[in-house]
Specification:
The structure is a single chain. With 234 residues, this protein is an alpha/beta fold. 43% of the residues lie in helices and 9% in strands. Strands 2-1-3-4 form a 4-stranded parallel sheet, with helices on both faces. The longest helix is centred in the middle third of the chain and has 21 residues.
């Protein structure tokens, strides 16, 4: 039976690094972006998949930065999704990464009953500051978007737990977490994991600001369930 792995996480939260590391261990991603302005090694996204996700979100009255309350899709969306799945049918294990996936999981579940999830998150301030620099809009706006995405990540985990990694972990702890995820997907961790480099993480070293209560509680909950959890921030 074909195994399909969905890499879940908010934008700017280490999804590209997780995808690239799993690809290095043998996960087939297909034709993905390997060079991008805001990702030193590419965002590792299949253009066909993220364009489909954008179309589904638009059809639902939203987009990735304004998630719709409910997601719906058309027969044309179903046809494209099923064609994408067939394009990978010769791979025993394949996967895809797109932050929008958190918003459209049910769209994929309609076609695939045995999806496997792996997740990643990072400190909401790092995500919000990065998106503020890249996209504009106030930091508080992006903190709210962070909460929308990561509430969904936590909801999916609580329904059926799966491995989640904290992208802000120290280097060796992060690498250990990657090995756990690779093992869970029946992938062979390379002797030297070269895709991940600490330089892939960018953030301001200044003191972190106070988070809104809802965002802080979500972040603490994710820290508790993460691989290599360490101390929970207060």
């Amino acid at each position: 039976m074909t195994r399909i792995a969905c890499i879940l996480g908010m934008h700017r939260s280490g999804t590209s690094c997780l995808a690239g590391s799993l690809e290095e261990a043998g996960l087939r991603l297909g034709d993905v972006n390997t060079a991008a302005t805001h990702n030193l090694k590419g965002n590792r996204e299949n253009k066909r998949i993220w364009e489909l996700h954008d179309s589904v979100l638009l059809f639902s009255g939203g987009n990735w930065w304004q998630p719709p309350e409910r997601v719906s899709w058309s027969d044309a969306h179903r046809a494209e999704r099923d064609a994408i799945i067939r394009s990978y049918e010769d791979a025993p294990t394949w996967g895809f990464k797109d932050p929008r996936t958190l918003l459209v999981v049910d769209f994929w579940r309609e076609a695939v009953s045995n999806l496997m999830f792996v997740g990643t998150f990072r400190h909401p301030s790092f995500v919000a500051e990065s998106l503020h620099r890249r996209e504009g809009r106030p930091v508080d706006y992006w903190l709210d978007v962070w909460a929308r995405y990561n509430a969904r990540l936590l909801e999916l985990y609580e329904a059926d737990p799966f491995p989640i990694v904290n992208f802000d972990l120290a280097e060796e702890a992060y690498r250990r977490s990657l090995v756990v995820i690779m093992d869970g997907l029946c992938l062979e961790a390379p002797a030297r994991m070269e895709f991940f480099e600490p330089g892939l993480r960018h953030h301001d070293a200044s003191p972190l600001p106070q988070l809104p209560d809802r965002v802080s509680h979500l972040y603490q909950s994710l820290c508790r369930i993460a691989l290599e959890p360490g101390p929970v921030p207060t």
